[in-house]
Amino acid sequence: MDEAALFKLTHGIYVLGAWDEANNRFAGSVVDAVMQVANKPFMIALSCHNNSYTKLCIEKARCFSLSVVGADVEPFVIANFGFQTSRNVDKWAKVDYITVNNLPYLKDTMARIEAKVTEIIAYDSNTLFLAEVVDSWDCKCGDALTYNQYRAYFKDKVIESFNKYRQQLLKEKSNV
Ligand SMILES: Cc1cc2nc3c(=O)[nH]c(=O)nc-3n(C[C@H](O)[C@H](O)[C@H](O)COP(=O)(O)O)c2cc1C
């Protein structure tokens, strides 16, 4: 099997949000494994890797939010949600966000989607959520960021932004 073939499947980039009951705040992560799989009812599939804390929160809350990431996104948004875990960081406190129906969304996003989990399928590596779209909002025109664009030219900017953020945190710690 040539695994490179799987990178030819096109994906978008999304910020996922869910209520974290244990910490009384929202959890969140970057995901690309999302697609619409039916339109009657409107259904989407979301795949989370099994180490994701947001995955645990979705299993408990059985609902989640998606913010569709635009091509003009600040690299830090992806670094914040994709390079650290909500287990020990309040990621939503580090970005501008709004809440609708007790779920968090990026203020600056292409579109917002709220979904209610109907089925859960567990694999060794990932957990697949099938979910019904409860509500959705088309927020602005423009191009969404694709996973292939992220890999081709955006990832370096995200890494650079995460390194700057880590250095700032270390500086703040050493000043205490
Ligand atoms: C571009 C990109 C795409 C990602 N796609 C997924 C995905 O589809 N599913 C997933 O579970 N994690 C994905 N991740 C990894 C999670 O965002 C990452 O492991 C995150 O730290 C999990 O945070 P959590 O522990 O707060 O849930 C992706 C990360 C990046 C940067």
Structure characterization notes:
The chain has 176 residues and is an alpha+beta fold. It has a single domain (10-175), classed as Electron Transport, Fmn-binding Protein, Chain A (Pnp Oxidase, Chain A, Roll). It has helices at 53-61, 75-82, 147-175, and strands at 14-20, 25-31, 34-39, 42-49, 63-68, 97-100, 103-106, 111-122, 126-138. A 7-stranded antiparallel sheet has the order 2-1-5-8-9-4-3. Strand 1 and strand 2 form a beta hairpin. 33% of the residues are buried. The structure holds flavin mononucleotide. Flavin mononucleotide binds next to strand 2, strand 4, helix 1 and helix 2.
Taking strands numbered 1, 2, ... along the chain, how are they ordered across the largest sheet? 2-1-5-8-9-4-3
For the secondary structure, the number of strands is 9
**How is the CATH topology named?**
Pnp Oxidase, Chain A
The poorly predicted ranges are none
Strand content: 35-45%
**Tally of individual helices:** 3
Helix and strand pattern: EEEEHEHEEEEH
Structural class, by secondary structure, is alpha+beta
- Quaternary state reads single chain
Bound molecules: flavin mononucleotide
Outline: globular
